[in-house]
Amino acid sequence: MARESHQLPPELVIDHLQDLVLKTQDVKVMLDELADFTALTLSDPALVFCSITLMRRKKPVTVASSEKGALRLDETQYRAGDGPCLTAIREEAVIHVPDLVSERRWPDYTAAARVEGVGSSLSVPLVLEGEAEAGLNMYSTRSHGFTGEDIGNVESYAYHASKALRLAVRISQLAEAKTNLTAALESRTVIDLAAGAIMAQNRCSQEAATKILKIASSSRNVKLRDIAASVVTSLTTDPSVRTHFDA
Q1: Are the C-beta atoms of residues 102 and 87 closer than 8 Å to each other?
Q2: CA end-to-end span of the chain, whole Å?
């Protein structure tokens, strides 16, 4: 009996991937939805589950999965240092394992796959930028679970998924940079307030006041920002005196 196709028209796939990136503020949530959408779109979701591996500085991590079984299989590969997903990323090639019972290349992985009830797998590299690399991992509960048409569809889909993942990674990096900048500005604000208070008390220059703070920080082994915050707190209980920076 022919298997029912779950493949969506390319234009709907592209639209949905764009919506995932634009409408989901939390990158982790977006990636989990991408994994779910991939499993649903490319095969029978009752038989296939999916995960996404991101490799940065040569260290792999599963950033999303549609089932916990996919995460466990990924982590088995990471511990062993090899497997179809890592091979796909390393060689930038599609790795299809039609029958995990007869597969001999990755014994740790194939043993774990049998425990999870997985009969076949398909791993596709995702093209990112810079040092980051990624792979799309699909696991089927039956052997020979991926047809030639499935593999072709996944390769085509991976191109658009790569673009969505690149944008998600970039958004995450920008959010992290904003957080770091905000923290730096907050630290600068409280340090300036503390230095101003010391200048007023000791009738000294800003340079001298800052030096006093740094000496206290070093001698007490406490961060400069925390020393400055304690100075500001000791001088006023007025809640209108703020040390928080609004970005």
Answers
A1: no
A2: 59
